[in-house]
Amino acid sequence: xxxTALVIAARQGDRAAGERLAAQYLPLVYNVVGRALNGHPDxxxxxxxxxxxxxxxxxxxxxxxxxxSWLVAIAMNQVRTRWSGLGHRPAPLEATEDPADPAxxxxxxxxxxxxxxxxxxxTAEATRWLDDSxxxxxxxxxxETTGDLTRSExxxxxxxxxxxxxxxxxxxxxxxxxxRTVVRALASDPRCPALEDLLGDWxxxxxxxxxxRIARHVRGCASCxxxxxxxxxxxxxxxxxxxxVPLYDSGQ
Length: 252
Hints:
Layout (H helix, E strand, L loop, with lengths): L2 H9 L3 H22 L6 H14 L10 H20 L19 H9 L3 H9 L5 H14 L5 H8 L3 H26 L5 H6 L9 H13 L1 H6 L6 H5 L14
């Protein structure tokens, strides 16, 4: 049974169809929410709330063939609501005295599950340097590059026209590339002495402000800028990557 038929059956009260529909789209929602919330502990709650709202709201969906774009739009609304409720970004992983659980951070989870290395790994790590609104766009654009969303679905989820969405995506791609140069500069060994001096009062939390400061240094430093040469366009790195599938047992 295809997705549209599942939606119609679930809307008519077929519980099994609803369960199959949820299972089919859970990885998509998990990836959208996980990346948008940067692996915040509330990811599971937001995913669950998204799925519950979607399944309970099926009678209001006029066109069953638009279920996926409608579902992603619900997910993004839940993400924005959660960020608004939190009122702040999550603390850095380094802030806890306990060893970090890789499953608690979506970037680490992506790297581990997809066995990323080289520039793909750097690109995943660079997403930590985006702000919340940029990460919202990235979470959708990443899935567009992998073929799991269309541009029209991306635009609808953001509540924008395709033309405006294209502008937002390009801005985020530019900021992601800047983040990649930051990641590479910080990972250099030995690290540039001038960069070490700049980072003297940095607490280790990736923020847009520190992204700007480090990127400004990289642009003006021959050593750091040389190390940032040869970046592959992110589309080529992200396309073909599978979704990160949540490890839920069948009882959940």
